[in-house]
Amino acid sequence: MIGSLLRSAPPVGWYSAGSLGWNNVRTETITKVGTPFGDQPGGNAHFRNGFAAVGSAGWGLPQGLRFEGEAAYRRNSLYQATAGSLHDAQAEGSEKKSSLFVNALYECDRPNLPVSFYIGAGIGYNWIKWKDAVILDATETVRFNETKVKLGYQGIAGVAFLTNWLPGVSFTAEYRIRGLDGARTYHGQVLRSRFGAFPTSVTVSNSVDQTFLIGIRFQVPNPR
User: Fold this and answer.
1) pLDDT single digits (tens) 99-120
2) pTM strictly above 0.85
3) Most buried of 14, 95, 194, 206, CB within 10 angstroms?
4) Residues 189, 72, 93, CA angle at the centre, nearest 5°?
5) Distance between CA atoms of 152 and 207, rounded to whole angstroms?
6) What is the CATH number of domain 2-219?
7) Cβ neighbours of residue 48 under 8 Å, at least 6 residues apart?
8) What are 194-200's contacts with CB under 8 Å, separation 24+?
9) Domain-wise residue ranges, the chain
10) Cβ 29 vs Cβ 206: under 8 Å
């Protein structure tokens, strides 16, 4: 009876998937602050937990190996930063990441169990925007609003809950860890300071996202 309710095979042929979840950005390092008066000491930027949305489509081979293209969006709010003369200053705005990735995954089925397990890795491009990012204290206000493009990489681990009562449908739970290649520099403006207004920049590195996702996967029926 139990065996008749289970479908333990990973997707073979075309499939599509979508998921939503929680995204954590580890504290990012500000390695340098640029000003017309010379470089200033760096610091760090802190973000609140945010959300993520991921969609993918791919092709599965009978051996459990599959390849897919992925589009994703992540958003986290900035709440505190240290940069130049600003120490543990209040911060506002957000970091938005849009990405296109290519992933390779291997999925292992478990006979007579309603689950399969998979791992994978991916590489692609990220568009990282500091949207209306403002860092301020009693004497100084700095604003950034710029997008940078960086190569990224990710690791994936997940489990799929497989059913026969919804033909071709699986429910998924995933953990992803994603990093960016190298540093990126945002150009902004000091709006208020004891020296007046002037252009500035921050160089940011050590950007890592940890994402937990719940989703659904649909196996496209093979034409007869």
Assistant:
1) 999 999 999 977 677 889 999 9
2) yes
3) 95
4) 25
5) 10
6) 2.40.160.20
7) 76, 77, 78, 79
8) 194/139, 194/140, 195/37, 198/35, 198/36, 199/35, 199/36, 200/33, 200/34, 200/35, 200/84, 200/142
9) 2-219
10) yes
